[in-house]
Structure to design on (271 residues):
């Protein structure tokens, strides 16, 4: 009995909050929530529900504060955090490297035009009233994209990605196609589990494509009768966009996308 008490005590101290070994660093509106929720289906993965924004907004609180935001885990489990603005915030790659040079980074990317529209749809649902045109085109010339526009800038993936390459090798950053998170979640999860050295548990049996929502919904276990969809803030209907604005955005991003494909060695075939 004494022995089992000892074992239990060891087990209790093993069950503790740990700094993340993997971080979903972005990109905003590219499926970061879906990626995290898919990952959380895995028994060896734990993650805080909310975005922690430690490396961009709360860095002065210190690593100990950050650790305390994590759920408790066992030594064999992987702690994952996601805060999509890490990707575009200067200084964050260095800060993450200071925490751990071996941390694994996950980066969801999506057609930057669709990303911008999704970002805009989010602003509309938050009560903002400016049109997409007002947000992405130059004030002086409505036919030209404003490269200083916040929602335009986020989609300049190559530029941001280069900042990460200063501190991390490409092999430590897994790119996840935001489009594939919707069309083939099981394939994405096969890559993600391999990248995180996790046994391949999450497969097609964990997903059910909900035709009404137009997105995969999740099963906590393959026998679950009612799959759970992400909440209404994920997979919002998109507003109609002036075709001229759409075409101008497409043309603007085309060379930037090509640059990104070359840099990462993958052609995402975006519009
Ligand atoms: P939309 O709401 O514009 O369709 P993020 O979590 O980074 O904010 O990304 C939100 C996007 O995730 C959604 O954008 C949606 O397209 C995408 N997504 C991917 N898989 C999804 C899923 N299973 N359920 C809902 N949205 C999903």
């Amino acid at each position: 009995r004494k022995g089992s008490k000892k074992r239990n005590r060891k087990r209790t101290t093993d069950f503790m909050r740990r700094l993340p070994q993997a971080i979903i660093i972005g990109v905003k509106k590219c499926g970061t929530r879906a990626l995290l929720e898919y990952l959380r289906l895995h028994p060896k993965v734990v993650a805080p529900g909310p975005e922690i924004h430690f490396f961009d907004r709360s860095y002065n609180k210190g690593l100990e504060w950050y650790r305390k935001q994590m759920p408790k885990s066992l030594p064999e489990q992987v702690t994952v955090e996601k805060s999509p603005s890490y990707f575009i915030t200067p200084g964050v790659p260095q800060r993450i490297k200071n925490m751990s040079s071996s941390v694994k980074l996950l980066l969801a990317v999506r057609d930057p035009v669709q990303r911008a529209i999704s970002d805009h749809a989010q602003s509309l649902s938050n009560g903002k009233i400016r049109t997409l045109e007002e947000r992405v085109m130059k004030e002086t010339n409505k036919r030209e994209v404003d490269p200083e526009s916040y929602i335009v800038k986020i989609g300049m993936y190559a530029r941001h990605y280069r900042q990460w390459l200063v501190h991390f090798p490409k092999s430590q950053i897994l790119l996840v196609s935001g489009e594939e998170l919707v069309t083939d979640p099981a394939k994405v999860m096969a890559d993600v589990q391999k990248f995180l050295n996790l046994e391949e548990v999450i497969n097609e049996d964990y997903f059910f494509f909900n035709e009404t929502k137009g997105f995969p919904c999740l099963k906590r276990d393959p026998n679950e009768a009612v799959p759970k969809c992400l909440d209404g803030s994920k997979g919002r209907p998109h507003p109609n966009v002036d075709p001229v604005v759409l075409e101008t955005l497409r043309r603007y991003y085309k060379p930037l996308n090509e640059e990104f494909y070359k840099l990462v060695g993958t052609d995402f075939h975006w519009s």
